[in-house]
Design goal:
466 residues; alpha/beta; Transferase(Phosphotransferase), domain 1; Rossmann fold; 3 domains; seven-stranded mixed beta sheet; five-stranded antiparallel beta sheet; 16 strands; 16% strand
């Protein structure tokens, strides 16, 4: 199958991304040929790959180039990543590690006589818990005296979202999703309390920059002064600026004033030790039978079942949860153990849509999220009960993500649902195990049905028939 142009790859005339089911290609246009050759002939790309800064990449020989890309000056093939995620799906620590990786790569490039021409957070991805840079064409030759032209973009994409959480205990995710280019410095400056503005880092990187932006807008109607000598920034000062920024970001921590609802779920759930073992045994059986190269874990919490799935043979796991503390904890564990597990933020009742230019620049959750297997353990009631989503639609959505999986049904007499219904009317007349099973049967084959708790929690192993 011929690769198709990625709908979000249109801003850089030097090249574009094409993809099919198995491969990711980057075409280099005649316009971008010279700049690419400047970086290619120095071996900087191969060096950066060896240092694990950038995604593995190779130049295709003429006989390997897809037919529809034959007119390109060059065609590169990149290793296909397990999952493409966006900064508004990352936890604080993922965004922080992505920022540090970006700065480390920039400093590394300086030693080789190169720099980066932009600082988009979308140029960063994760392989498990390891950040990786993906935009080869962002690398360019360093010109003596040039400024960090992408400093503003770096602040809006990385620094400002981190400061939201570090200074104000506000998560960046919903804001970043609503403003795809990041968080404007002027907006952040309005939120920071006066006493925190007295910090030199905050004053120099946020308050002053917000003031400069206001002055730029105010003076844009004034005639420019011609032949004004352009100031330059010495290389050492440039590197010093990057290192200063890196040192500051490395020390940032989330404020976390308030404890989240599900942060301690692993320790406070209502399972007995025997019931917990039964659930893990069923998961092990499922993973060993299906051997998924990519597993989705809906409602992953701190990754307890994701790690168990990896232990039993899942090659990689992408987990999703609404609780920020849980996914942060899961990420730190994955990072510590170098596990192929990527936990991400998801409001399942409001998954990210296709958005950006012509609503195709950033693909929505449903379009990006497909796997060969999934688990949805202690998950479905958070939609059907907490969010009033129709049970049939909820099942439809879950099984659309993978052809086989485990779905746990939790009855109304379970303590968790009793808490949910304590202060509201029970209007969920179709929420019962008989109806759940009949709906699932109409859409998939039930391979196994296992009751795992005394009060009636049941896990269904399904396999789609179509």
């Amino acid at each position: 199958m011929l690769p198709k142009l990625n709908s979000g790859s249109f801003r850089d005339p030097a090249g574009h991304i094409y993809e099919n089911d198995n491969s990711i290609y980057r075409s280099i246009s005649q316009h971008g040929k010279k700049a690419f050759e400047e970086i290619h002939q120095t071996n900087i790309i191969n060096d950066a790959i060896k240092e694990k800064f950038i995604v593995a990449t190779k130049i295709l020989s003429e006989d390997k180039i897809p037919e529809n890309l034959k007119n390109s000056a060059y065609v590169l093939e990149h290793n296909k990543l397990p999952y493409i995620s966006y900064p508004y799906e990352w936890s604080f620590y993922q965004l922080k590690d992505a920022a540090l990786h970006h700065l480390d790569f920039q400093i590394y490039l300086f030693e080789k006589g190169f720099t980066l021409k932009d600082a988009s957070a979308y140029n960063m991805q994760f392989i498990g818990a390891r950040p990786i840079f993906i935009d080869i064409l962002s690398i360019k030759k360093y010109s003596a005296g040039e400024f960090w032209t992408s400093h503003k973009q770096f602040c809006e994409n990385f620094l400002n979202p981190l400061l939201l959480k570090s200074l104000l205990d506000l998560n960046h995710n919903s804001w970043f999703r609503g403003a795809l280019d990041g968080i404007p410095t002027a907006d952040l400056a309005k939120l920071i309390p006066f006493r925190k503005k007295l910090s030199w880092n905050i004053f120099s990187q946020v308050i002053l920059h917000a003031r400069f932006d206001r002055l730029a807008v105010k003076n844009q109607e004034k005639p420019s002064i011609k032949n004004k000598k352009t100031k330059s920034l010495p290389k050492l000062a440039y590197i010093g600026l990057l290192k200063q920024m890196r040192n500051w970001i490395a020390k940032l921590k989330p404020l976390n004033k308030e404890k989240t609802l599900w942060a301690d779920y692993t320790n406070t759930n209502t399972y007995s030790s025997e019931e917990t073992k039964a659930k893990f045994d069923l998961l092990a059986e499922f993973i060993q039978a299906t051997k998924p190269n990519k597993l989705l874990d809906l409602g992953c919490n701190n990754g307890e079942f994701s790690f168990a799935a990896i232990k039993n043979g899942a090659q990689s796991v992408v987990g999703f949860d609404f609780d920020q503390s849980s996914i942060a904890d899961a990420y730190l564990k994955a990072k510590k153990h170098q596990a192929p597990f990527l936990p991400l933020y998801l409001d399942a009742a409001n998954p990210s849509p296709n958005q950006g230019w012509i609503q195709q620049e950033r693909k929505g959750f449903n379009e990006r999220t497909k796997a060969c297997a999934l688990i949805a353990l202690a998950f479905i009631h958070h939609l059907a009960i907490a969010k009033n989503t129709p049970l049939e639609q909820t099942i439809d959505w879950i099984i659309s993500l993978a052809p086989t999986g485990l779905i746990e049904f939790i009855p109304k007499n379970d303590p968790t649902i009793c808490k949910m219904l304590r202060l509201r009317q029970d209007i969920f007349i179709d929420y019962n195990i008989e109806n759940f099973e009949n709906i699932l049967k109409s859409k998939a084959k039930i391979i196994k049905k296992t009751q795992i708790t005394k009060n009636g929690r049941v896990v269904f192993w399904f396999k789609k028939t179509v």
